[in-house]
Amino acid sequence: MRYRLLGDTGLKVSEICLGAMTFGSKAGPRTVPGADEAESLNVIARFLDQGGNFIDTADGYAHGRSEEILGKALAGRRDSVVLATKGFFPTGSGPNDKGLTRKHLFQAAEASLKRLATDYIDLYQVHCFDSRTPLEETISALNDLVRQGKVRYIGCSNFSGWQLAKALGVSAGRGYERFECLQPQYSLVVRSADRELLPLCRSEKIGVIAWSPLAGGFLTGKYKAGEPAPPVSRLGESDPAARFFVERFLTPRSFDILRELESAAQSLGKSLAQTALAWTLAVPGMTAVIIGARNLRQLDDNLGAGGWDFPRELWQKLDQASAVPLEYPQDFQSWIDPLLHGDLAL
Questions:
Q1: pLDDT digit string, tens, across residues 113-157
Q2: I want to staple 3 with a disulfide (CB 3.0 to 4.6 A). Which of 12, 111, 118, 330 is the partner?
Q3: What number is the average pLDDT over the span 311-332?
Q4: Residue 346 lies in a domain
Q5: 61 given a catalytic annotation
Q6: Measured between alpha carbons, how far is 70 from 81 in angstroms, rounded to an integer?
């Protein structure tokens, strides 16, 4: 296992982060079928024994059960782990039991600490942007959690470029803690973050940990064009949220990318999952990829993505096959920049 610095901090995290969304979960609204407690504990133990030290969860995963399982698993070895969790989604039926208000964030963080059986959270992330709460209130609350010693670093997930940039400005202007990490959806078939988010993170030295780097299992090759989905898959489950998540990937473009991935994996002698994860790890500015494993077999395969370097020419071939088209103003800037600086004749 190799380790990387998280953003502009001295914190070292394993380049493969264990995602705990499936721990203790059953198929239902906003959940996917996962592993029971016993299997989850086995997966966590194997990950830690293999050198992994970075685990990501959220208070909404399995309605809190994921955090409870992690609390049991990390007993006696808590300080050797960089533990990340998130708050935002509803934790109750009340009007203030959701979002990024000071009230909800304080309550959510305290509840997570209890379920995780720990005194502190290494990386506390807001799970999504809250359009109803001023960013100043949210970041002030997160800053206070750090000052109280309950949180070490803060991060965000599912933010747009302008939202992250504004948050950084609020932190800088008021002397608050800043987001040191962004958790975006990113994979060979979901690369919209290339337009604004990743350039911003590289410029400001913000760590990036990609969620769904296998595109909901699509990049493992389990889905075939024109064929029924396997019964044990998100498309094979009855949960409409899980089906919607994967169905977005079943496009001609995605299957073209999958064919390129299959060719690359064959050249490398790696599995499709290992190749897709390793490609994402080689993206400039990427800190870690979040893997989700229902069992030890999936975990062991995914762990094979770490510890080696993707051949540059092969990486570039996949990069070109999956690149998102530039849009204004990026396309205009990419055209005018070499003209302005004399790389091309006017």
A1: 999 999 999 999 999 999 999 999 999 999 999 999 999 999 999
A2: 12
A3: 95
A4: no
A5: yes
A6: 11
Q: Which two tokens stand for residue 202?
A: 């590289």
Tokens of 9: 């901090």
User: How confident is the model at residue 30, as a pLDDT?
Assistant: 47
% of the chain at pLDDT higher than 90 = 81
> Which amino acid, residue 305?
A
Structural domain harbouring 94: 3-340
Find the catalytic residue in 61, 153, 176, 223.
61
User: Residue 93: which CATH number?
Assistant: 3.20.20.100
CB contact burial 74-101 (16+ within 10 A = b; e otherwise): beeebeebbbbbbbbbebeeeeeebbbb
Q: How many CA atoms lie within 13 A of 320 on its CB side?
A: 6
The pLDDT tens digits of the residues spanning 130-139 come to 999 999 999 9
Strand partners, 290: 17
Q: Which conformational region is residue 228 in: left (phi greater than 0), alpha (psi within -120 to 50 degrees), or beta?
A: beta
Residue 32 has pLDDT above 60, yes or no: no
Q: How many CB atoms lie within 10 A of CB 105?
A: 25
- Per the structure, how many domains does the chain have? 1
CB-side neighbour CA atoms (13 Å) of 271: 19
